[in-house]
């Protein structure tokens, strides 16, 4: 890099400046060490306890760690709940981002929407979980979850996925907005000049152009949704196996309760109900690998988004 | 035909072009999200009201043992005519304040230095390593931090830092098991600093290069230049990072419920060193801790009251951040937040 071409020696600096620089170096390296320690420790402990068996069996009730089965059901649970969350958050997030950066009128409404999205980003997930609990207990939403007589429990994959989508929404919106802001105006004008309407321009020109941003945003959002525990503990029922409702294959499962890897780790930690640290480590390793893979994808698509240069 | 003719209006509506219809649909979607936020605030406040109404301002005060109060509230559901609501949440609020402020201040200082290092002073290979490291740490689920905390940090504090004498001195009141304020603050700091670092670094990178070069050309050394020019003009990004990370710390429930000792006790700074080893439990962690007890109506109102306080604090945090960012951005038209 050119800016490092002529680095001056810090020996002529004042002592306070040199201390500051040393402190920055120290903290930067310490940060790397902490991260490496966390990842290596988890890899070490996880690989020690993980076995293919764990990945293929469901959790069972048992007294020793050999009898309690693996975590197939939580893995499927993670997959399903994240899929629901992203299926909701991606279109809604793209819609909001498009409205904010392409329409955004009246201005006052745009400002309110902007702060609303910001507030969802700042809202604690446990508050979202409690909100979901009241929302999905309403009887008109009862068809989404298990009903017993007139009582709606409001727990299941749909409520959990819906609330997780609120968690992921701000990330999608921010990413897509940044992408749209990077598209220069003359691109839009070229499309208008060809007689395209605004919505046609958005659909045929802008959205394809920001596709890498959409993918990056929803990947980051999915990463957050996968990592959340509070919403899962409250809204997914936290049952060990997937307990479907009714006989329809997939829909029944989705209406029923289950658990995810995060709630599995939470329950199996020494502070949880089950206290099986070995299982917790193995599940945490799987969780970490999923998160790392998502990160790699974010990296790839993020680079693609930045590569797209407009002239 | 008059203008008020409904048929004509209908006709008029049909003539809306596809373009206008799309705008209306998107506008409706956007309004739906606003309604959802309002509904959240209203529902939670409505559910929380009985608890606030019974306790008044004493809700925020101290008095009695919080854990015993929670148990009494839970058990009172058997006798609906005598529902108990007495709840003095100060220990929980104090714990939340301590962990949130402690972790935010610690994370702010370290993140600022690390961000400066990352943007300006790190050699290219270190930079290439550090950037993905920050991103990975930011996306590690909090439950994993909690697991590491409860299996590594908590036993370490218990075995290495807490002495027998210290444990004996507080014996009648609490036992120091390692789940402590120290563990909570340290792990929370590690958890939220990646968020701060990435936002700070974006802000510092957005500072125009010629401002820095101008300062360098005047003979100011690199450290001082960066400190006085780049950091000052990236202040909006610093505020944005602090707000986002503090909101995360405030709402953190899972990790804190695992490492903070999970006892409704308010750590007392007068205790000296032991202060850092004392257990506590924050507001968010209390909600998670009592998940099973939501079946009891008085308990439900109490937990929603806690949630209302959390929601209000996080909204206030957003507003404060917005209010401090605005005057700064008005004079410094650059910054990390490229909106």
Summarize the structure.
The complex is a heterodimer of chains A (311) and B (339). With 311 residues, chain A is an all-alpha fold. Chain A is 69% helix and 1% strand.
Question: Could you describe the 3D structure shown?
Answer:
The complex is a heterodimer of chains A (311) and B (339). With 311 residues, chain A is mostly helical. Chain A contains 13 helices and 2 strands. In chain B, 71% of the residues lie in helices and 0% in strands. Chains A and B meet through helix 1, helix 3, helix 4, helix 5 and helix 6 of A and helix 2, helix 4, helix 5, helix 6 and helix 8 of B.
Q: Tell me the series of helices and strands of chain A, N- to C-terminal.
A: HHHHHEEHHHHHHHH
Instruction: Provide the low-confidence segments of chain A as ranges.
Output: 1-5
Please give the number of β-strands of chain A.
Answer: 2
Shape of chain B: globular
% residues in beta strands of chain A: under 5%
For the largest interface in this structure, which chains are involved and how many residues does each contribute? Answer: A-B, 93 and 87 residues
Oligomeric state of the chains in view: heterodimer
The low-confidence parts of chain B are: 333-339
Distance between the termini of chain A: 24 Å
Number of strands of chain B: 0
Strand-pairing-aware structural class of chain A:
mainly alpha
Radius of gyration of chain B, in Å, reads 26 Å
Strand arrangement, major sheet of chain A: 1-2
Secondary structure category of chain B? mainly alpha
Write the layout of secondary structure elements.
The complex is a heterodimer of chains A (311) and B (339).
Chain A: H1 15-49, H2 52-56, H3 72-103, H4 107-122, H5 125-135, E1 147-148, E2 151-152, H6 157-182, H7 185-193, H8 198-209, H9 211-227, H10 230-235, H11 249-255, H12 261-268, H13 277-307
Antiparallel strand pairs in A: 1-2
Chain B: H1 6-14, H2 18-55, H3 66-75, H4 90-121, H5 124-139, H6 142-161, H7 164-169, H8 181-205, H9 209-217, H10 222-233, H11 235-251, H12 254-259, H13 283-289, H14 297-331
Helix pairs in contact in B: 2-14, 4-8, 4-11, 5-8, 6-8, 8-11, 9-10, 11-14, 13-14
